[in-house]
Amino acid sequence: MPTIVVQVMPKAELLDPQGKAVAGALARLGKTHFRGVRIGKRFEITVDEVTDEVLAEVRELAETMLSNSVIEDVVSIIVPEALAAGETH
Amino acid sequence: MRIGVITFPGSLDDRDAQRAIRLAGAEPVALWHGSHSLEGVDALVLPGGFSYGDYLRAGAIASFSPIMAEVIDAANTGMPVLGICNGFQMLAEAHLLAGGLVRNDHGSFICRDQQLRVENISTDWTNQFLENQQITIPLKNGEGGFISDAETVARLEGEGQVAFRYVDVNPNGSVNDIAGVANARGNVVGLMPHPEHAVEEGFGPDTALAMRNGTDGLTFFTSVIQQALVR
User: Fold this and answer.
1) Tens-digit pLDDT profile for residues A36-54
2) Helix B14-24 vs helix B218-230: angle between axes, to the nearest 10 degrees?
């Protein structure tokens, strides 16, 4: 079944305590060449068919429900080929 | 006066809010998130808790509850609405209050008796406080960092919509130490600390005078009763 993928990230200027905690753990493992980590969200929305109407609806939902523009940005809305073909990954 | 307290899936402090309303001298009315009726109440409290397990964003899913349509209409026509902790997060998600709440900057849950300064005493929920009165209210949350863009923060500051500010320590990285805000009209107020936990001696926060005797939270509820009398 085709899937639409929406990715949301905390705004770049905001401190991301989750990402910071992971970056701290990496540093403790000696992986100091990883300079930073930020954690966001990925929504996989399954639909019967990807149409322009459905994509428009997802775009609207991404802005109004899946993200909060005060604290987050929608960074991408894509229909991955593999997911569209129903393959697992 | 009848004050509704809405229970959402995952609300924790709805009964505490009802108790606070009773102790202040009003009648609490239990309301349900899935209903479309406010049952004729005169004011509303959105209580604390972890509605929907804080999934998506704290307060986000609850802000799309059936009853929120009526809450938004009531708030926009002047009904007093108080959002406490998770309730504040819902009011921000519903765009009834400016800004947003994010994870505490230090990454940890925090629980402490918090000093606050009341900076706006003209709202429906603060009119019985003194200007710049310092109060002690329990604070307990993991996502209490108040943030907004610089322009909105400047507007909130300039128009007196910062209702409460943290004193002594900033417990969560909130911009300008903001603990709570009001809307322009002053009927909608939200804050992260829990006034309903500071309403009865022996069961409240510690104060300089004695352990657990803080009752500063009662004034939120006596304020809304007072504004109903003068209206």
Assistant:
1) 999 999 999 999 999 999 9
2) 60
Rounded to whole angstroms, how far apart are CA atoms B128 and B120? 11
B175 touches chain A (CB under 8 A): no
pLDDT at B27: 98
pTM of the model: 0.94
Query: Considering Cα of B200, then B203, then B204, then B209, what sign does the dihedral take?
Result: positive
Q: How many CB pairs under 8 A join A and B?
A: 33
In angstroms, the CA B175 to CA B159 distance is 16
Q: What is the pLDDT of residues B7-49, one digit of tens each?
A: 999 999 999 999 999 999 999 999 999 999 999 999 999 999 9
CA B144/CA B172 separation, integer angstroms: 6
Mean pLDDT computed over every residue of chain B: 97
Which residues of B carry out catalysis? Answer: 85, 194, 196
Residue B20 phi, psi dihedral angles, 5° rounding: -60, -40
CB contact at 8 A, B44 and B71: yes
Query: Could you tell me whether strands A72-78 and A3-10 are parallel, antiparallel, or unpaired per DSSP bridges?
Result: antiparallel
The per-residue pLDDT for A17 is 87
CB contact under 8 A, A68 and B148: no
Pick B208 or B126 by higher pLDDT.
Answer: B126
Element (H, E) at B84: strand B81-84
CB B62 within 8 A of CB B51: yes
How many other β-carbons are positioned within 10 Å of the β-carbon of residue B93? Answer: 24
